[in-house]
Amino acid sequence: MLAVKIDNLNIFLKRNADFALAGNRDTRQLIGFLLVYWLAWTITVAILSESIVLDSVEQVIWSQTWQWGYYKHPPLPSILMAGLNWLLNGPSIGLTIFAAQGCTVIALIYVWRLARKMLPLHLAITAVLLTSLIGYHNYKPTSFDHNTVSLPFSAAVLYYFYRAIHEPQRILNWLTLGLVAGLAMLTKYSALLVIAGPFVYLIWQNIWSNPFIIRGLFISASIFTLVLFPHVLWLSHHNWLPFSYFYGELNLLNSRFDILGRFFIGQMLPFLPFFIGFFWIRKLSVKQSMPTEVLYINHRDSDWRFLMATLITPNLLALLPTLLNGSFLSRDWVSAFFLPSGILIVKCFFDKYNHQRILANTRHIVWSCQITILLLFAIGKIIYPKVAGLDVRTNFPGKLLAERVSEIWQQHQGQPLNIVIADTWLAGNLLLHTRPEPTALLNNDLSISTWLTQQDLKNCGAMVLTTIETRDSSNYSEVFNHAMAAGSFSLLWGNLPHDYAWAILSPESDAKNCRLNHG
């Protein structure tokens, strides 16, 4: 009898040792996948692109003018980019893509950590790989914007909320939850909808009255408030600018059917690789055939409810304004709301399959899909427009523009270029390629360029740059009338020349030293 027990123990230890070894190997392969993915996107886009998309250009401007808020959004993405610029001598195209795709990688790491709480090892990795196929987690994060930067913080909120409600007596969980929730709100206000999901779960599970949870929620709320406090002060001092902007965006259209139709059709492309991957993984895999002692049997209905609540709640809340009054809804605004999708799909459909076979098939399919997505993006968004001579964002001659502007400025002024008056696109491309970077006055509007004052213009002077078509608009006509020099030039963008008007404002005669010190 003792010999039988020893043999059984040896078999058990051997099986678990093999499983642990496989787990280490599988985890290393997951890390390798994330690193290769990160580098492949960064290098490909950095080498092929001549410029970056508009939202990324906007971050180039905002990160150079550090604030506790901006007229559109809260400040955290710009703060993070400012830190990267300082560390890695930015801004640059490569650094922007590196930062954007880094957000995806960090988000997937948190998805991995959450999946490990709910699933066995092989299925957890499967869930992460499947999640990576959603377009919001691969080709969309070529833009370093608030939607992209919200991914890791939203994923962190879900993970730490899950930990906190399952270990409510541990104060550190609640402290961390309050911190990441506050940082998520400093990234994008829609993070409030992500935070709402776990609260729906608390009510659904009827655990909100647990004394430890009540204490924990109070701790998290306190940290959350402290993190947000500087931004709230900024908002109060600047007439709550982002909310005025947001209200204007909400009312761009007034047809519910038109908005909802555009929204749901717009979701088809980001989710196409996800559903293709799911279909082929399931088709190529076989039902569970592992020994009964290592079968994973899922009795945790609470996990299923957590995933459903955190997936459905923010999406329904995002749709609510459109359903009620026809407010505008962009498909990209919900990009961080689908992070639980891969875990939920795996939990619902893959539990009874051979876990190792599921993971092996997932690796092959996900690698194939990711390579295809990268190639299609590079060809369709960068290479083909360049060869065809199309004037798209990725082949804008930003470097030539910056060189031409610097040349004109040096011909007329003997001092450094400290201020550029231009729209976001032109100003951002100038800052991207000019060293030292000037400061941008966007659209000649001090109300949205809160980092500058009228006195700065008097002390520093400015270079005005706009298109020929907008030269006589209300934003620019006055500065052209008061310029000490003005002119125009053309740049070839695609196969067509584009004309730009410029003007130079000299510092006033009684000007003080320019505080910007870009020289």
Automatic annotation (TrEMBL):
All copies of domain Glycosyltransferase RgtA/B/C/D-like, residue ranges: 72-234
Protein name: Glycosyltransferase family 39 protein
Source species of the chain: Methylomonas albis
Entries under InterPro entries matching the protein: LipidA_mod_glycosyltrf_83 (IPR050297), RgtA/B/C-like (IPR038731)
Keyword Transcription regulation set for record: no
UniProt keywords, alphabetically: Cell membrane, Glycosyltransferase, Membrane, Transferase, Transmembrane, Transmembrane helix
Transmembrane as UniProt keyword: yes
Regions crossing the membrane: 30-48, 93-112, 119-139, 171-204, 216-236, 259-281, 302-321, 333-353, 365-384
Localization of this protein: Cell membrane
Pfam families: PMT_2
Membrane disposition: Multi-pass membrane protein
